[in-house]
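Hi R.,

Here's the chain you asked about this morning:
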Amino acid sequence: MLVQEQTKLIGSVAKKSGVPIKTIRYYEELGLLKTTGRTEGGFRIFSSDVLARLNFIKRAQRLGLSLAEIKDFLEIHDRGELPCEHVQIKLSDKISQIEQQIQQLQILKLELKGLLSGWETIPENPEQTICPIIEGA
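And here is the predicted structure, written out as tokens:
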């Protein structure tokens, strides 16, 4: 009986984590989660740490990390090491990417403001124009 309390069926994992069963299956396919076996009915059985792993996966995704990156971290963890150094490098890279995106968005914002500032211009041939705001660019 003790073994059953430590393991969790996929439906229970989905309910407690808020992660759909389909997503849990997908994570298992990718190697992010591992089953400890199956019931006679074919339902996946997970160890008791599955909820912590799912929490880690979801939090890492919210921070902008890919499932491949998350898998790398989990593999390091599964070898008995802390992946913190690897996580730190990836998060630093993510900050650099965000800073570049911010610069690109600021340039786009200026371009859009410029387009909107001259939108009153009436085209010479309105029947051949869809929208001078965009076409004038």
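One quick note: The beta strands are 8-9, 35-38, 44-46.

Cheers,
M.
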